[in-house]
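INFO batch 0412 | record 1 of 1 | parsing
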Amino acid sequence: MSKINKVVLAYSGGLDTSIILKWLEDTYGCEVVTFTADIGQGEEVEPARAKAQAMGVKEIYIEDLREDFARDYVFPMFRANAIYEGEYLLGTSIARPLISRRLIEIANETGADAISHGATGKGNDQVRFELGAYALKPDVKIIAPWREWDLSSRESLMAYARKHAIPVDYGKGKKSPYSMDANSLHISYEGDILEDPWAEPEEDMWRWTVSPEKAPDEPLYVELGYAKGDIVEIDGSPVSAGQVMEILNKAGGDNGVGRDDIVENRYVGMKSRGCYETPAGTIMLKAHRAMESLTLDREVAHLKDELMPRYAELVYNGYWWSPEREMLQQMIDASQENVNGKVRVKLYKGNVIVVGRMSEADSLFDERIATFEDDEGAYDQKDAEGFIKLNALRLRIAARKKAARQ
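INFO prediction complete | emitting tokens
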């Protein structure tokens, strides 16, 4: 075991990371720096300061990164229309690069020898945290306690907390039976009855969205203004990236938008079942595709759709800081230069329905050509005959050969 003098710990103040803090001190004889990020999880992060101080931590970082998260991670990903395996909007995945970056930056600022996280040895997050960290600081030492210690159950963690007088809120109030992760893009649920893929989630599990059955009977219309592929206005008012997430999460959640129940393929090899609430992301994906439908060239749009699964897989697997993701991002961002205009959506009982789109300067939709009425010579319908025959040539040749063989 190499000598470690100081470690930066991704610290939530909960049971697991509080135990990790003490375990790092005891196991490595090191000083621990704590880092707690507010990325829109909807819970107060300041109590983590008091808990860290109670455990003797001298250097405590608590940061509001909601705007950074939305602007520099969520928005670039949504320019790509990224969705993993056709359903997952990558809410947990996209938060990890930001946390990895700040862990490394704080390690550099404080002269720490290592970083540490609370991800388990079964999940994707250990991969995402560590791939990001190595990409940003190749020689960094990473300590993953769940891969080292012998605390293998909730009971053993509680016993460790009692033995070392670790201030955690065990035994107080009703605790959710689910393993949850939240940020301004989504909240996820795993474990308990969800480990049976046949079991329907209990209604009281959901926290951000009303059920579609109980959503309002009147639809809510929302108008989204775009500049270079990003939402910059809602209902005519300028908004920041962080405000977009907040406003659309509320609007979508109130109307039952954004629930998903998925069995996904983890990078570490297993299948896992998770439930997600992603109200803002569900609206953003639908609306962005509508904006692109008006402003993107056909072949550019189709190429983007071909690249998207690869991009989504890179984000899911933890390769945000890889050269291939950065290359793809440059291509995607270049495609967004003319994705400007407005999209109007109707939110109704779990549905996001696009009801209008416009772009005064950049629309490629030509009403004179598209019309079923007289186009005044804008399109010569006779041209279609040659186009069809040329494209049918190989089919006709193959059909003749097939007929000759019979």
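INFO post-check: The chain is about 40% helix and 20% strand.
INFO record closed
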